[in-house]
Design brief:
Shape: globular
Order of helices and strands: HEHEHEHEHEHHH
Strand content: 5-15%
Oligomer: single chain
Largest sheet: 3 strands, parallel
């Protein structure tokens, strides 16, 4: 967990949203703190430590377990390559809220396959959380749409075939 993964905005948004749901919401943070890279501010660490509805797991290789108990995966990252976590959530039909950055929006089509919010914008994230929770049937339908997209387009053999085509094209260009 580092600052540029959007943890500060996530914690701030959760603290704003949670009281409106009478303590029924829990925020589970999965991943190690990486203080040597881009540490979370002390204010965020204090909020995490003092809020009984925020559960900090640390590192875990049990991604499937946490997605199976989640009602929504929130991926507020400021930067990504191609985020496997969205594909993992998608194949488990776990609804997704994610920031509008490259990588995320290459997988998630807003309001069709998940909910996209403005990166680094707490109020936009708060709105996305409210919308997703208050219209949960639609939120689950988006997760089903994403599942269908992943099955159709992200099968390992399809991805590997596309990589092979790309490599062969680059190899041909390099020969001239």
């Amino acid at each position: 967990m580092v600052k540029d993964k959007g943890i500060t905005e996530l914690v701030d948004a959760f603290e704003e949203v949670a009281p409106q749901y009478n303590g029924k919401l829990k925020l589970i943070l999965v991943g190690p703190k990486e203080d040597e890279l881009d540490p979370l501010p002390n204010s965020t660490l204090n909020k995490i430590a003092s809020n009984e509805n925020i559960i900090e797991v640390g590192f875990s290789n049990k991604v499937a377990y946490f997605m199976s108990i989640a009602d929504i995966l929130i991926h507020p990252s400021h930067r990504e390559g191609f985020p496997n976590v969205l594909l993992q959530a998608g194949v488990m039909k776990c609804p997704i809220i994610c920031s509008n950055i490259s990588g995320n929006i290459d997988i998630i089509e807003n309001e069709t396959e998940g909910t996209v919010f403005d990166v680094k914008n707490v109020s936009s994230l708060v709105h996305a959380i409210h919308s997703s929770l208050d219209n949960y049937i639609i939120t689950k339908e988006k997760a089903e749409n994403l599942y269908q997209k992943i099955v159709a387009n992200f099968d390992r053999s399809i991805v590997q075939s596309e990589y092979l085509k790309l490599y062969n094209t680059l190899l041909e260009k390099a020969r001239f």
